[in-house]
Design goal:
By secondary structure, this protein is α/β, with parallel strands linked by helices. Helices cover 39% and strands 13% of the residues. Strand 2, helix 3 and strand 3 form a beta-alpha-beta unit.
Length: 409
């Protein structure tokens, strides 16, 4: 290896050492145990601020000695990659005996998929983990990685994780099937640890994005900064959104944060921000890909970019509180929380329609979301139906506390 390449690798290892040695280890996300780290090529996708970099660094710190040179973490958005390629780094790393390569911010590297494919095919003993934006496209024309790569979508903190991070309360998670089968037993278990209703309203406002713990006083403004970055940089850079329409997309998001999301009127929405109907539908798809909103349909069989959604929610309640000019309507907050936590734990969420419960989950059950006085009238004709009720701490028959759906991951 030439001296220039050796010095370049030393520089990368210096940065690697600094990143790994300073990553906090007090709290490790449950996502750590859901990833099959033994696979040769992994992509961790998620919006800015959910903790992808931290997770990668924590994995390295857990599994490799501080001076182990078989592993390397680097970020594709550093100046180093203005004069070096991913292929060069992988080649030199493998020549030194490297076996595990972690590349952060991969979406900021042009033609990343082509080079990762080349590295994967050439270095058969190398394990590669990349992380990037929610907008990261694995199937990228000539460099289709879909048959080689395993994708993982990383959400923000669940209510359960928030209780641990913020209050040091360790509570076991459970599956949706387990919750629906014995809801009150689980509620009693949680109540033996804490009073969940004491903390739930706060979680709805803050704590979904882990950067909450870096500066609580500036949390709302940091959410706004993340939203602006996604729209200004990522949508224009990776979805070819015209720069001249950036303000209209922000206006669209502002409108969505204030409406009560019953029936979606695309024509009215388009008129309010001054863009065509087809463009509005395209932007809604882009915003969902960026994990800023959630489009809900009455059926998941055939969903295209230009299909009108039956319901639109923001991705999570913290976004709702950060972007709404007025205090968000509580019904919207509840539904946003419910959909976020169910989708983040891997469930398919469909709009239930006006004559059924609010949401159909995995085509198997219907769940109506509401306050503590919500009755069964809306779901009386459904065979496998439940109520997710706010402001209660115990389950009664098929009425389950709303907060309990935040314990699924």
């Amino acid at each position: 290896m030439c001296c220039h390449n050796f010095l370049g690798m030393e520089k990368l290892f210096e940065r690697h050492d600094e990143y790994v040695s300073t990553v906090p280890m007090e709290y490790v996300r449950s996502m750590m145990d859901k990833i099959d780290w033994s696979l040769r090529l992994i992509a961790i996708k998620g919006p800015k601020g959910v903790g992808k970099s931290t997770l990668m660094l924590q994995y390295i710190r857990r599994n490799f000695a501080p001076d182990d040179r078989h592993v390397l973490y680097c970020s594709a958005d550093t100046s180093y990659f203005s004069s070096h390629t991913l292929v060069d780094v992988a080649d030199n790393f493998c020549k030194q005996g490297g076996t595990h390569l972690f590349i952060d911010e991969i979406h900021k590297y042009e033609n990343w998929s082509g080079e990762i494919k080349e590295i994967y095919d050439l270095h058969r003993s190398l394990h590669i983990v990349v992380s990037g934006s929610s907008l990261l496209r694995i199937n990228d024309g000539q460099s289709d990685l879909s048959r080689r790569i395993k994708e993982y979508a990383m959400p923000g903190l669940s209510f359960r994780e928030y209780l641990w991070f913020e209050h040091g309360l360790k509570i076991d998670s459970l599956s949706l099937e387990e919750l629906l089968a014995a809801p009150n037993a689980y509620c009693q278990y949680v109540k033996s640890v804490c009073h969940p209703l004491e903390f739930f309203p706060q979680y709805l406002r803050v704590g979904y994005y882990p950067f909450y713990y870096e500066g609580k006083k500036v949390y709302q403004s940091k959410i706004e900064s993340v939203v602006n970055y996604i729209i200004d940089a990522e949508l224009t850079g990776y979805r070819n959104v015209e720069v001249g329409n950036v303000r209209k997309i922000k206006a669209l998001l502002q409108v969505l944060s204030q409406i009560v999301p019953y029936e979606v009127d695309i024509a009215k929405l388009s008129k309010s921000i001054g863009i065509q109907r087809t463009t509005t539908l395209k932007y809604l798809t882009n915003l969902e890909e960026a994990a800023l909103i959630r489009r809900l349909f009455a059926g998941l069989d055939r969903i295209g970019d230009l299909q009108k959604p039956d319901k639109i929610l923001l991705d999570n309640p913290n976004l709702l509180y950060a972007l709404s000019i007025a205090t968000p309507e509580i019904g919207t907050v509840r539904e946003t929380f419910f959909c976020n936590q169910l989708a983040a734990s891997g469930h398919k969420v469909e709009y239930g329609g006006l004559k059924s419960g609010d949401f159909r989950i995995d085509r198997e059950c219907v769940i109506e979301v509401g306050g503590k006085d919500k009755d069964y009238s809306q779901i009386r004709n459904e065979r496998n139906a439940y109520i997710a009720a706010d402001d209660i701490d115990s389950a009664v028959f098929h009425k389950i506390p709303l907060w309990a759906f935040g314990m699924l991951y």
